[in-house]
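ASSEMBLY PREDICTION REQUEST
Request ID: AP-0331
Submitted by: J.K., bench scientist
Number of chains: two
Total residues: 282
Priority: normal
Notes: Please return the full assembly, not individual chains.
Input sequences:
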Amino acid sequence: MDPALLASRIEKHKTKDLVIISVGPEAIIKGSVDIGPTHEPENLEKLRNYLKDIPKNREIVIYCGCCPFVKCPNIRPAFALLMEMGFKNAKLLNLPKNIKTDWLDKDYPTND
Amino acid sequence: MINMKNALTLLLLIIFSGSVAAQSTIEVGKKAPEITMTKADGTSFALSTLKGKIVLIDFWATWCAPCVEEQPELKTFYDTYSEQVKNNKFEILGISLDKNKESWQKAIDRFNIQWIQISDLKFWKSPVAKLYEIDELPFNIIIDGQGTILAKNLHGKELEEFLKKTLNQN
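STATUS: Completed
Returned structure:
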């Protein structure tokens, strides 16, 4: 998902049916849930627990933003878990560089 | 007409302030701005107290995989130049953009980091990120005894060569 689209949905309060999950260093994005870096097995378990009561057709957006995708150790295990658990509407937030340049510097809504 | 003039002044002001803001302050030959932050033991530390030493300032975080990979390399430098460290010629200053104190402390212990480590635990919201114009990690600078920037963002072989050249002169 494009960050501009997510930001505009948050600003328009159109996130009622959307679950936004941080699987990286901090849940910067407004309304997102802080799971912690999912390259750590305990956080991946935390994600599994968090997801277990959520309907499989719910729209879910995960993000990390620690670094460019190729170097990110968190996105892949988290997304693989979502697929394994059968989520049909899971998306990855497209933060090509990191959460700073692609979110904070654009003044998109944050959790504080 | 007055409105036109005002609008023009405003426009010029915007253009001018924009060009000022676009000028980088973190460049070789410029002075490194002062940094005051807290060490893991809670005591305050200021960059200016390292005056007189060549300092490698390493901006990193435990959530940044390439930064973590670099830590053993920094340890090798710290060991290689231990004489210079002892003689107050060289120091490494690690500045972490971590948010979680526990993760930070764990990494310091795990890599047995002996050099100075400071952080304000503010993640990307740390004022130092803005002050040092940091867009991504890892990032580093090397400063001389007067706080002038000698090199910017050197890694791997380049960093090794630069330290060798700079520290063996002293």
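REVIEWER COMMENTS: Chain A has a mean pLDDT of 96.
SIGN-OFF: pending second reviewer
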